[in-house]
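Record 1 of the preview.
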Amino acid sequence: MHTLLSDELYQQFRDLLLTRSGLFFPDHRRNDLHHYLTTVLTTTGHQSLEALYAAASVDEHVLRTLIEGVTVGETYFFRNAAQFDALRTRIIPDLIERRGAIRSLRFWSAGCATGEEPYSLAILLRETLPDPPSWQVAILATDINTTFLERARAGVYGAWSFRETPAAVREQYFEQTGAARWRIASGIRQQVLFARLNLIEDEYPAVMNGTSMQDVILCRNVLIYFDDETIRTVVRRLYHALTPGGWLIVGHAEARSDFFAAFETINCPGTVIYRKPLQAPLFEHPAPLITPSPLRPPLPTVEHAPSGVESARAAASLPATPAADANATLLARKRHPSSHHGTSPQHTSGEADVLAAARQAADRGDLQTALHLCTAMIERQPLCAEAHLLTGQILEHQERFDDAIAAYRRAIYLDHTLHLASLAIAVILQRTGRISDARRSYERLSRALAALPPDAPAPSLGNTTVAELQAFIQRQVAALRS
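->
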């Protein structure tokens, strides 16, 4: 078996891993890469590193084996006590105060390895939330390594994983399954959803994989394996995955200030954490985005969007639609459907300006102006589905959930292909604990999608296919039944 790593092979493996996984092996880590490759060579049965590289370049399965062979899964429960103290004393109290009315929280462990981090988070929330059963808590845990994820789902750990865990915590939340082996309690295990995700791919933030509108993201000891350009790209996407006021926790060695310039820097005892400003734009997102969140539709491309006084003038200039003409207008829409899925017919110049101005106001955080513009447009053009959709999104962000649902329903009545609005209604019902209604909403949307080809784009949901949306719905319905 030929295991010599020549200069040429080193550069080829280095570039392949950087391009496909973001993992970076600079010159000073060449020996580490050589060690990992030798192990992978034995696992895959290839006779030489040249053969391994050739196979990984064309075979996705071999490439995934290679990536998993060079990733590090070293972690343990409650790793970095100072950061868990910050969660307990600063972050969770802030969320309790801001989310107490709806009692809904979303957490994401990005780079979860074998699961100790998200399970630690679930235990911490169990111990710190007031009346935990009354809160709807979603904990997403992702990693690029499927072997790590399988071990995480099993939830069985050895003594080394508990080296900073109080004995009382292990006794309360784990059951011993053998000599020096413990399994996480089923109630904690069921709180965490594990999924594979490659942080360098542009598949997040997105509704479909649960990575949008997060309250807290932990991405610890992951960025250190990326080069600077990849770090900036990943941090930018994590920023957009957070809700305004959301928190980001990274490893101590990753806390280079220039990477996190968009965040507020919060100093806590023994650690530094980052917060997305509360005034951050509502609809801002990186591009490309695989599918928009219900709170983040794609913005239209316009050469000029009026603001301030010009916004008011744009609203005032809208042509009125008399109530007597409503049926005629609706009939015209059916005879001349838009060429775009889930959108209204071509707007007049005044309508397009007002919609653009409303989105621009929302981006600035001026929700009052955005809502005023939407209301003015609806008064003059009551059949504009997009104005009702945007109204619902603004109301949802203001946590006026019943009003948001009413706006979304009006949008759907005017354009039944606005599946983004249908999805938003189901998500709101789920967030606010109306489980039966949420399940019926998901199932109703699923039936509407059943007539469409599985590989077709889901109307109004960007590049998300019907099959992907159906899979997401199935996971949500299953979670509601558990």
